[in-house]
Specification:
The complex is a heterodimer of chains A (375) and B (393).
Chain A lengths: L7 H13 L2 H4 L9 H25 L5 H43 L7 H17 L1 H25 L16 H5 L3 H6 L20 H28 L1 H6 L3 H6 L3 E2 L3 E2 L3 H30 L5 H17 L4 H38 L5 H10 L1
Antiparallel strand pairs in A: 1-2
Chain B lengths: L4 H25 L12 E11 L5 E10 L5 E12 L2 H12 L2 E3 L5 E5 H6 L1 H10 L8 E5 L5 H5 L8 H10 L12 H9 L6 E10 L2 E13 L2 E6 L1 H10 L6 E5 L8 E18 L2 E18 L7 H30 L6 H8 L1 H7 L3 H6 L2 E12 L12
Parallel strand pairs in B: 1-4, 1-5, 5-6, 6-7, 12-13
Antiparallel strand pairs in B: 1-2, 2-3, 7-8, 8-9, 10-11, 11-12
Helix pairs in contact in B: 8-9, 10-11
The chains are: A mainly alpha (375), B alpha/beta (393).
């Protein structure tokens, strides 16, 4: 099977876009009110060890994806069982983001269009993307990141006149507990979601490259997510942020330079489309590769269309309406995602470390594994 | 694996067929939008007045800009009136009447009658906050006339469309300061805070050249979503000082130093430093106001421009402004018990620990809150003349 390769910088760009995905539009850490940025920063700090664990697992078996690693370590049956759990997570996450996108479009732009229409259109695009493979997606990220960053920076500057620094104070006025109440939700959405990349990062070039992708992407992407959260608080204030569905959209709609430069909200849509495309495609790719591995297919491409269409279906039936979507995303998701993102990876890591230690007591772990895995 | 010539050709043909298919698809799918709206099919709302009928239904009056087919904008307002049980229903039934769908994105002004404001403004205007088409940077005003409709039907002085004139006036608030500069989103945002009393500008009609013209001035005071009273233009100025929002305007100093003459000061810049202080467990607000003024008009012949004259004027101005502010403060505190200044928010910002203890009974605390105001006037000049007008002796 011919292996696709992406470079480290491409990996970083992809991961950053993945982090932006729906987060920049829907916001995260809202529980903490005006202190949400503190929650996000704390979540980044907590995410560092978590992503180090992901990287460690990947770097122990360079060139292998999560599914292969599971089969190698847990045997065929249990490996596949755990694989199925992760496939479900990637598949579900992709459907959720797809639905977010659909709801966003019909809420702000096309209220009379059925929600299924943008979901199908976007779904087909993502199927196409996933079929093209990770290399193509990586090249897309190269270009998309420029648009996304330029738009984010430009519009954040334009919205400065509408900012009110009073909105930030008092910092931690309701105690540190309240300020930290958004940590779990920010950790699981979006930072922990990068667990999906474990399923496709077999495309990275070197042994240590998982570290070089995960950590810079977390720090850079996290910095931007925090800045955007800060921007939205400064413009909207904590009460309005709680009240609106899409804080970034509402914030940018406040741009009004000299009564002339205004109504720029569409830029938020562009950011969402570009980063959401990457996020959904990565999820689709991960789920498809997992299914191919579990069923023992050589090429995953044959599965992309059916699984992608299933994803579109799931996105369509998963919520009754936008209210349910936000309830789920902010109230259920942190607890639902925690096992997939934290508990399972940590258990897997501990298991692998123990196993390796037992197997090669006198020898150095990593070199030994390299030999073992290529055999 | 190397491909044969034939295979390459086949691939190329496949690609071309695919491209042609894509082109056909996109030319069918993307050339139109099934719920498209042409500009002449729309009635563009410039402003809307909301009143209440006797039977409790809502009566809305939309001032729409008429657009003739060939891109011609006739600057003639068209009034569309409609009843409904809710705002949205009334706005929708306007389609039935006009045959055009109302396009809200350009609406500049929403005027509500006092009756509605006093009952519950959210009950009637939630739609504005919610609908994607209505923009949040619209002006919301309270009419002190009997209905809100009268205002829109008044005659604009410079612009035929009254709503556009109101928009211009609101934007020049900086040099008038007779009414607060409150954008719709700000009003809704304040509604979420329990301890801040929202405010809105007031609009009424005045006679000018036998025509009734809308005029903005004064402030409507709310407690939650209900209007509880209003204050006039002069009190509004004082309120703006206490909110640190006074940007510029005039202040008349009456009977300066016992001369019986009035001096009009033009205020160019004003800064208020508002700090809550705890003195022996008693909370107090300390407000220091610094302003740059110039003597705009002296209604008399006394010399207030010389050095000693300026001293006198400065002292008189400071005393009077302090007095006026205190008077306004007692109205807000004693008569309405409404924290229109956002003092509660200042306490929260500067003393979060204190605030967490008192936030649940801020109303009672505010009723006894002392204000310590200190005005410092810096006279910058006297327009272009050096002396007062001297009448030949």
């Amino acid at each position: 099977m011919n292996k696709e390769k992406i470079s480290i910088t491409q990996g970083i760009k992809m991961t950053i876009l993945f982090l932006f995905g729906s987060t920049l539009v829907m916001g995260t850490g809202g529980e903490a009110g005006r202190d949400m940025w503190i929650s996000i920063v704390a979540a980044i700090v907590l995410a560092v060890p978590l992503l180090l664990i992901y990287s460690r697992i990947l770097s122990l078996f360079p060139g292998e994806d999560l599914f292969q690693i599971l089969e190698l370590n847990f045997g065929k049956f249990f490996g596949k069982l755990i694989s199925i759990i992760f496939i479900w997570f990637a598949f579900h996450l992709g459907a959720l983001v797809l639905r977010n996108f659909g709801e966003f479009i019909i809420t702000v732009g096309l209220p009379e269009t059925p929600a299924i229409v943008p979901v199908i259109m976007f779904g087909l695009l993502c199927i196409w993307g996933a079929k093209a493979g990770i290399e193509t997606m990586a090249k897309c990220s190269d270009y998309f990141i420029i648009f996304v960053m330029v738009l984010l920076i430009l519009f954040s500057i334009l919205v400065i006149p509408s900012m009110d620094t009073d909105n930030l104070f008092p910092i931690m006025g309701e105690g540190i507990g309240k300020a930290m109440s958004g940590v779990l939700s920010s950790l699981t959405y979006p930072f922990g979601e990068t667990v999906v990349f474990m399923m496709i990062f077999s495309a990275l070039p070197h042994k240590k490259s998982a570290y070089k992708v995960y950590i810079p992407a977390l720090l850079l992407g996290g910095f931007v997510v925090t800045s955007i959260a800060l921007r939205n608080i400064l413009v909207l204030g904590p009460a309005t942020i709680k009240a609106v569905y899409f804080p970034s959209y509402s914030a940018i709609s406040r741009v009004n330079i000299g009564n002339f430069l205004q109504r720029l909200e569409i830029a938020v849509t562009i950011v969402f489309i570009l980063s959401g495309f990457i996020k959904i495609t990565v999820c689709l790719l991960a789920a498809t590769k997992g299914v191919a591995r579990v069923l023992g297919f050589d090429d995953y491409r044959i599965l992309v269309t059916p699984i992608g269409l299933l994803m579109v279906n799931l996105a369509n039936i998963i919520y009754k309406n936008i209210v349910e979507m936000f309830d789920w995303a902010f109230e259920v998701w942190p607890y639902y995602a925690f096992p997939f993102q934290v508990i399972l990876p940590v258990l897997i890591w501990i298991f692998i470390e123990l196993k390796l230690r037992a197997k090669n007591k006198p020898k150095q772990t990593e070199t030994a594994v390299e030999d073992g895995s290529s055999a | 694996m190397k491909m044969t010539r034939k295979q390459v050709m086949k691939l190329k043909i496949n690609k071309t067929v695919f491209l042609i298919l894509m082109l056909i698809c996109s030319s069918i799918v993307f050339t139109g939008c099934w719920n498209y709206r042409e500009v002449e099919q729309l009635a563009i709302a410039a402003g809307v007045a909301v009143d209440k009928n006797e039977d409790g239904t809502i009566h809305i009056t939309i001032e729409a800009v008429n657009i003739a087919g060939d891109g011609q904008v006739a600057y003639e307002p068209v009034y569309i009136e409609e009843d409904g049980r809710t705002f949205f229903e009334a706005a929708r039934s306007a389609i039935a009447q006009e045959g055009k769908k109302i396009y809200w994105s350009h609406a500049k002004v929403v005027i509500v009658s006092q009756e509605i404001a006093k009952e519950d403004i959210v009950k009637y205007l939630d739609f504005l906050f919610r609908d994607a088409e209505a923009r949040e940077d619209t002006w919301l005003l309270v009419s002190t006339e009997k209905t809100a409709k009268e205002i829109l039907e008044g005659k604009g002085m410079l612009k035929a469309i009254v709503s556009f004139q109101i928009d211009d006036t609101m934007r020049s608030q900086k040099s008038i300061s007779k009414f607060p500069f409150i954008e719709l989103f700000e009003f809704f945002d304040r509604l979420f805070y329990k301890q801040v009393s929202p405010i809105l500008p007031i609009i009424s009609l005045t006679e000018q050249n036998d025509k009734k013209t809308p005029q903005i001035g004064g402030t409507a005071i709310f407690k939650g979503a209900k209007m509880i009273g209003n204050i006039d233009e002069n009190h509004t100025k004082c309120m703006l000082w206490l909110r640190d929002e006074f940007k510029g305007g005039l202040k008349i100093i009456e009977d300066v130093a016992g001369t019986g003459e009035n001096v009009t000061l033009e205020i160019f810049d004003s800064k208020s430093k508002i700090t809550p202080v705890l003195e022996d467990v008693i909370l107090k607000m300390k407000v220091d106001i610094e302003m740059d003024v110039s003597i705009g008009e002296i209604a008399g012949t006394t010399d207030f421009i010389s050095k000693s004259g300026q001293e006198k004027l400065k002292k008189a101005a400071e005393e009077q402004i302090e007095k006026d502010i205190k008077k306004m403060y007692s109205i807000a505190r004693d008569q309405y018990n409404a924290d229109v200044f956002g003092f509660g928010r200042r306490v929260e910002m500067k003393m979060p620990e204190v605030w967490s203890q008192i936030k649940n009974n801020w109303d009672e605390l505010f009723a006894e809150l002392e204000l310590d105001v200190n005005v410092n006037v810096a006279i910058r000049g006297s327009a272009t003349t050096r002396t007062p007008l001297k009448i030949g002796e």
